[in-house]
Amino acid sequence: MSITRRVGMDRQALFQMAERNKTSDRGGRRHPIARWYRLDNAAKIYPVIMRSRHISVFRLSAVLHQEIEPDRLLAALRNTLKRLPFFAVRLRKGMFWYYLESCQLPVTVEEDVINPMRHWSVRDEKGYLFRVRYGQKRIAVEFFHALTDGYGGLVFLKTLTAAYLSLGGSQYRPGHGVLDLNADAQPEEMEDAYRRYSDFRVTRRPAETAAFHLQGTILTGHQLSMITGICSAGQVAEVAKRHQVSITELLTSVYLYQLYRIQQRGGFQIDRPVRISVPINVRRYFPTRTLRNFALYANPGIEPALGDYSFEEILLLVHYFMRYTINQKYLNAMMGANVRPEKNWLLRLAPLKLKTLAMRIVYALVGESRFTGTLSNLGAQTMPEEISGQIDHFEFQLGPSRLNPVNCAVISLNDNLTIAFTSTMQETDIQRAFFQHLVELGLDVTVMSNQIERK
Amino acid sequence: MAYCVHCGVRLDPSEKYCPLCGVPVLDPLQPYQADAKKPYADRHDPVIVRKNRRLTAGMISIILIFPALLCLAIDFSVSRQIDWSLYPTGALLVLWTGLVPPFLWVRPSFRRIFLPFALTGLAYVYLISYLQLNGDWFLPLALPVYLLTAIPTGVITIVFQRRKLSLFYLPAFIMISAGLLSLAIDLLIRSYLEQALRPGWSLFVLLPCIAVALVLVLLARRHALREAVARRLHV
């Protein structure tokens, strides 16, 4: 109300002006949305650090109760892309930066495979930055991280799944992250929110030393070991409540504690800190409608050089570390540290080759070498009531990374909490220790895997 | 659904063994059923690394042919005959046979790549001795040295390709071959110069080579170190 009073016009006139601005800011083109996009702040690093065994890809799947029909899925995908045109892009190389360019290639859906998220040369293939696959009852979408983060990917998957179900005759009301297919794409959905919210008052990047890394026998032939456990979200929440922590904090502590035990047993790097990288969806603290990357990372960890740790100690440490890190002020300082180099004219004018080199060096110093594993929790998800019952569970998996062979991702829907480990390593010690710990905490875990052949 | 007797987790009906610990399903009331539906697909996605090989071969050819033509043209325009330009042209031709065939063959093999390269190289050495007026060194010196170098190189390539030796013994093998080769070349030169047949400078090459080879063999026998190297250098 205060805004309307200040500019001296009524509400309706204000919205009309906003509408006019929306269509005129691109020189009156027919499409209200630009034909190419800058990479957002976080996305800039992903094309640069990509290697054959380190591609920043994640995979989200919805497992339904019915068999998937590929034709219907393809039709649903076309409808979804009409609503989300900025997902129909490919990665191009400019003189100074990578960028995303709208792309009219035909879309396809592929049969699911045993080794998803494999080496995927998005730089060379010049195709879309996502892949839609279907299994028996599974709709799976793999996203290259330069395109979107877990939240944006989930909106895409939910909209796609709802579109698929609606083609089968199910009616639903949009909401719960499911977009209205009949609405137009909104330019705000593709903004770089990092730039909007960094105020550079203080910039801060936590000083971290190199962390402990799991080591083992690498699987041959670009295989990926997937081990997934499903348990009741209610039960997990109960256990977390008993320990007075959140679900993410509980699972992070279990992961941290078991990694620590493996480290102490292994007899190498026993004094290196054990740290877990926990992505935080910061949309909660900085309101935006963006579907591009908008996440930051908290790396809770312990330093075994200081002495022995018990599980309860680790729980406390993780809990308070999260409280200390995850608040608007601290997050803004971290965000500023990431965005500031991007504003520097000297850096901006450096050619892409030079930037690539510099970014690789920076990533080697502050990136994956600083943590032992990733635990990404997308949290408790909901779907519109009308179609919620037709979906059994969601699954969230992280792609292979170079230094840390094992990664963990968590998501829940309808009381099914899915904990998915993806690994490029034959040994399953950490997965076993993790799930055994959950069993000891009193949880009933059902485990399944893609049953790759281990030598 | 059966439980894993070792881990305590419940197992999906499609699991014959516990994916965490490898213990088989041991539930008499709910034995493993082979026809249970698997949660993930079976199809393996082949990893294809596509390269535009013809384009690379073409680019290399242009880069090599251009200076050769330039040399021939300059030589001819200055002296109305072709003499010195045959040296760079021949060298570029040898380089071409070494660089381009790997890109042209769909299935490059030892015979298809190494032999043409070695033969053109030999022809080039002969060309040099022919162009020089006092070229009587080809048969007694150049040919044996050339063959002595080519044969171990070929053997090492075959050993490498057929995986006869593990990657850890291969460097040791290469070091020993290099030491012995230098010894043979030393003796050959001495016989050409009609000196006494005893090893001279080659001992300074041979002995360090043997020492390095022994160290490599010792390292290769250490399992933990081999694993560490394999882990960090795997491709």
What key attributes describe this structure?
heterodimer; A: 455 residues; alpha+beta; Chloramphenicol Acetyltransferase; eight-stranded mixed sheet; five-stranded mixed sheet; 14 helices; 16 strands; 35% helix; 21% strand; globular; disordered N terminus; B: 235 residues; mainly alpha; 3 domains; 8 helices
Describe the secondary-structure layout.
The complex is a heterodimer of chains A (455) and B (235).
Chain A: H1 2-7, H2 11-24, E1 36-38, E2 57-64, H3 70-83, E3 89-93, E4 98-102, E5 109-111, H4 122-125, E6 130-134, E7 138-144, H5 150-167, H6 193-197, E8 225-232, H7 233-242, H8 247-266, E9 274-281, E10 295-298, E11 301-302, H9 311-325, H10 328-343, H11 345-349, H12 352-366, E12 373-381, H13 385-388, E13 391-398, E14 406-413, E15 416-423, H14 429-440, E16 446-449
Parallel strand pairs in A: 5-6, 9-12, 12-14
Antiparallel strand pairs in A: 1-4, 2-7, 2-13, 3-4, 6-7, 8-15, 8-16, 9-10, 9-11, 14-15
Chain B: E1 10-11, H1 53-79, H2 86-99, H3 101-104, H4 110-131, H5 138-161, H6 170-192, H7 202-220, H8 223-233
Q: Overall 3D geometry of chain A?
A: globular
Which regions of chain B have little confidence, pLDDT < 50, spanning 5+ residues? Answer: none
Please name the fourth-level CATH homologous superfamily of the domain at 225-374 and 402-449 in chain A: Nonribosomal peptide synthetase, condensation domain
Quantity of strands of chain A, as a count: 16
C-alpha termini separation of chain A = 68 Å
User: What is the rounded distance between the termini of chain B?
Assistant: 40 Å
Number of domains as seen in the coordinates of chain B: 3
Low-confidence stretches of chain A: 1-34
CATH architecture of the domain at 225-374 and 402-449 in chain A: 2-Layer Sandwich
User: What structural class do you assign from the helix and strand content of chain B?
Assistant: mainly alpha
Biggest beta sheet attributes of chain A: 8 strands, mixed
The whole-angstrom Rg of chain A is 22 Å
What's the helix-strand series of chain B? Answer: EHHHHHHHH
Globally, the shape of chain B reads: elongated
Oligomeric state of this protein: heterodimer
Q: Can you tell me the CATH class of the domain at 225-374 and 402-449 in chain A?
A: Alpha Beta
Percent helix range of chain A:
25-40%
Fraction of residues in β-strands of chain B: under 5%
